[in-house]
């Protein structure tokens, strides 16, 4: 395999392009911003997953009560919880897509330093796509939290009546 690379002069070019510590250092510096964003998305997803787990467990408990007492009416809370679960799942999915796209951005930044073809436009499109995924995920998360707050207010009003 190395002989093939050496004959094609690919290995020599690759070694030449990566031999500069300064160049590799610049690539690492460029990839730090997306990497920090990736860490931030991970922290947000941790919160999203905690909420999703709580919602799923609450739905499970209500379903269990309904199975134990078939004559019981379906609580209105169940419909709200199902909608919240859907919003939470979408928030997690879009945030995951954002994280994956950021990983692609980081990989493309490294690849771009070692090839002569200019791929800046592809990197920019990947970055914009990751931001669109992240914004969509955060909007879904915000909608879920607003829905949860409304449910809390309704519950507080019922208990004060």
Describe the 3D structure.
The chain starts with a helix and ends with a helix. 89% of the residues lie in helices and 0% in strands. It has 161 residues and is an all-alpha fold. The longest helix has 48 residues. It contains five helices and no strands. The chain is elongated. Helix 3 runs antiparallel to helix 4 and helix 4 packs antiparallel against helix 5.
Give the helices and strands, then pairings.
Elements: H1 2-7, H2 10-18, H3 21-68, H4 76-114, H5 120-160
Helix pairs in contact: 3-4, 4-5
Features:
161 residues; mainly alpha
Query: Low-confidence parts, pLDDT < 50 over ≥5 residues?
Result: none
Binned, the helix content reads: over 70%
The helix/strand class is mainly alpha
Number of helices: 5
Q: Strand-and-helix sequence, N→C?
A: HHHHH
Oligomer: single chain
The strand count comes to 0
Tell me, rounded to a whole number, the average pLDDT.
Answer: 86
Rounded Rg: 24 Å
Tell me the fraction of residues in β-strands, as a range: under 5%
Short description, anyone?
The protein is an all-alpha fold and 161 residues long. Helix content is 89%, strand content 0%. The longest helix has 48 residues, at 21-68.
